[in-house]
Amino acid sequence: MIRRLWQAGMIRMARSPSVKRIMQQGSAGSALAARYVAGATAETAVSRAAALHAQDGICGSLFYLGEYVDRPDLVAENFAAKLLAAEQLGRTDLDVHVSVDPTQIGYSLDPQLARRNAFAIAERVAASAGSRPGIHALMLDMEDETVVEPTIALHAALVEAKLPAALTLQAYLRRTEADLAAEIARGARVRLVKGAFAAGNDAAFTRQAEIKVNSRRLIALMFSRSARAAGFYPIIATHDDRLQAYAIEQAEANGWRPGDYEFEMLLGVRGDVARALARRGHRVRLYLPFGRDWWPYAIRRIGENPRNAVLLARSLLDRAA
Ligand code: FDA
């Protein structure tokens, strides 16, 4: 109950243009932004990725902030930022790994535009990475139920064209078991998340307990012997340490080695858990959002745990000081 009220309050803050304006005014360096966001520009995000890699052996996936855009100028801005991120990662020895929401690159305006942009970004990822080893990818994030089918089709087209692409699937959707089976059979790279959206009971599991049970079922499929034989690459994206432990258990039981799969988490959330996994020899990647429009993203992260109230209060006091 407290958690739900807290989350609803934070979502209201995320949607308020006036709060956003006040918080973002010249303050990309505030405590909140510094915790959840890797910087205002691709350059700063790449530096943060390099530092994480050097300090903790943790990899990154760069994400330019800005979702559900329906203005051509914003689509163009997002597209340019993704290309730049891939290009700049290519100048380092880090993975060339960028996360993209289909609506960011034009899906709501014109699905063909989003497709052209996705192909161009994946081509830039491939060219920037060259032949050096690493996990290089255009990772397609998964948005609400209405874009699931086209996102899966887009990923299939990219893979068909032999471009470095990966796909996010959500455990809250009932259809995911079948979608995952198809991706396993084609030896794809899939990031499994619980899902940050809601849908009706016919399409989705609506209770957290059910979503956790389904997550386990899907993890078992991802780490099956047949998935390994098919060359499938599991990516477990959660801060839930019990699910992470379950994935490790399944991996060990079925002969997977740590480099054959990865864990992914968000920058600023349970960093201790991420570092502990990396120290144990697992491949860990952090989702590294960057850009000027950081407030809606950061406040949603705050909303995910009422204990973050202290962090929020501290950052508001910093602003007032
Ligand atoms: P859960 O919410 O159950 O939390 C597990 C533990 O972590 C709890 O102890 C909790 O308190 C703690 N915790 C979680 N968030 C916290 C926070 N902000 N601060 C402090 N503690 C926190 N969704 C989607 O629909 N499409 C997508 O493309 C993606 N992409 C994506 C990429 C990556 C790398 C991650 C990690 C997540 C996503 N998600 C996503 C979001 C995902 O669907 C889900 O909403 C969140 O990860 C929260 O679920 P968890 O499984 O992490 O655990």
Distance between the termini: 33 Å
Question: The CATH topology, please?
Answer: TIM Barrel
Report the C-alpha radius of gyration, rounded. 19 Å
Beta-strand content bin: 5-15%
Report the strand count: 8
Number of helices: 14
Number of domains: 1
H and E order: HHHHEHEHEHEHEHHEHEHEHH
**Helical content class:** 40-55%
Q: What compounds sit in this structure?
A: dihydroflavine-adenine dinucleotide
The best one-word shape is globular
Describe the overall structure.
There is one protein chain. The protein is an alpha/beta fold and 321 residues long. It has helices at residues 2-15, 17-24, 31-36, 42-56, 72-90, 111-129, 148-160, 176-185, 208-222, 225-229, 241-253, 271-279, 295-303, 309-320, and strands spanning 59-64, 97-100, 137-140, 165-170, 189-193, 233-237, 262-266, 284-290. The mean pLDDT is 92. Bound molecules: dihydroflavine-adenine dinucleotide. Dihydroflavine-adenine dinucleotide binds next to strand 4 and strand 7.
Keywords:
TIM Barrel; globular; eight-stranded parallel β-sheet; 13% strand; 321 residues; 52% helix; alpha/beta; binds dihydroflavine-adenine dinucleotide
Topology at a glance:
Elements lengths: L1 H14 L1 H8 L6 H6 L5 H15 L2 E6 L7 H19 L6 E4 L10 H19 L7 E4 L7 H13 L4 E6 L5 H10 L3 E5 L14 H15 L2 H5 L3 E5 L3 H13 L8 E5 L4 H9 L4 E7 L4 H9 L5 H12 L1
Parallel strand pairs: 1-8, 2-3, 3-4, 4-5, 5-6, 6-7, 7-8
Bound molecules: dihydroflavine-adenine dinucleotide.
In short:
With 321 residues, the protein is of the alpha/beta class. The chain is 52% helix and 13% strand.
